[in-house]
Amino acid sequence: MADPRYIVLFGACLTQFTVIGMLFSFGLFLPSFEAELGWSRTFLSTCTALAFFIMGVLAMPGGRLSDALGPRIVLAVTGTLYGIGFMLMGQVSAQWQLLVIFGTLIGLGLSSHDVVTLSTIARWFPNRRGIMSGVVKVGTAIGQITLPLGAALLIVAFGWREALLILGIMSSILLLVAALAMRRPPAPETGTAASATGASFAEARQGVGARVFWTLCATQFLFFPALMSVPLHLAVHGMDLGMSQTLAATMLSVIGGASIAGRLIMGALVDRIGGKKAYSLCLLILFASLGALSLTSAHGSLFAVVAVYGFSHGALFVVVSPTVAEYFGMRAHGAIFGTVLFFGTLGGSVGPILTGWVFDQFGSYTPAFITLALCAAIALLLVRTLPKPQAIGHSG
């Protein structure tokens, strides 16, 4: 009989593959919305920002619902609705319709994909949280590689509306299959010291823990705008620089491919060197790549910069959950992790809007890329102020 841990791991990977792969693919539809409906990139970015905001708001109750009902039910409902959102997206004719879809169905689908899967994996693999979080996020990377290319081919073959319908049906099916593979660990596992000890949610916001807690929240707020804005605008940025739609989509696949290395290498490193050092390394690479992105326009150089960005992009999605567990244990991991993610999505909801606004105002993404680089630098400085986990006394 198959090891149940790895069935759960498959479900978590497939969830990440579908949810984030589809989110990456949306950037390829921006020119179609612009050309056929005349909608600006600021508005289209606002739609995704609204979904990110809803994701953050619902991440905290999503984590609690997963604890109460189990990951299977939560992911089945949110995953099905996520796919329906893309099906309906292909039928829109007014701006309010797209806003409603992103503010409800897409936001709901995004809200559970990280907090539910990564918290569940952290409980199933208490001694290998970092590397297994990395493996889960490899599913994300594979989705980033394959789904944008698939979306580009569907747009060429059938048109953008039909492409969204096909992608939406596929997403609902895949996410339902993924949800059926997910479940909580058996009672003996959840009762182990590694799973049960640590700070409560209230304790995490007191004393030394409060400084760590708010530092992690602020750090997430600062770097997350880059992780949300670059993938959304990168393809259309490439097309602005003269790339074909298919070549521009390939840049998203490069992010996905490079992020596999980032997720696996940093997933293994965070278990060895700890969250503070791993976090710092990730943010340093992110800062360097964003700075280079603001200076690069040649196609070949841009692909190289995108690969470096992709490494940091993938790595940063891996280090957060293990770092929260390292400082606060597993007792309230879902609530604490969900709150940190919420602050990230606050920043993530602002980033795409401002990036789109910058392009509409200046005809260039360069000022936005520079701003994102500065935010990454501030986040790096904040992480360097974190104490050793033992100073809190809740490491798990």
CATH topology: Growth Hormone, Chain: A
Q: Return the structural class.
A: mainly alpha
* Percentage of residues in helical conformation: over 70%
Quote the beta fraction: under 5%
Tell me what the CATH architecture is.
Answer: Up-down Bundle
Overall mean confidence score, pLDDT: 84
Q: What ranges have pLDDT less than 50 throughout 5 or more consecutive residues? A: 189-195
- What is the number of beta strands? 0
By CATH's scheme, which homologous superfamily applies? Answer: MFS general substrate transporter like domains
C-alpha end-to-end distance = 30 Å
Characterize the largest beta sheet: strand count, sense, and whether it forms a barrel: none
The Rg value, from CA coordinates, equals: 20 Å
Number of domains: 1
Order of helices and strands: HHHHHHHHHHHHHHHH
Number of helices: 16
The CATH class name reads Mainly Alpha
**Overall 3D geometry?**
globular
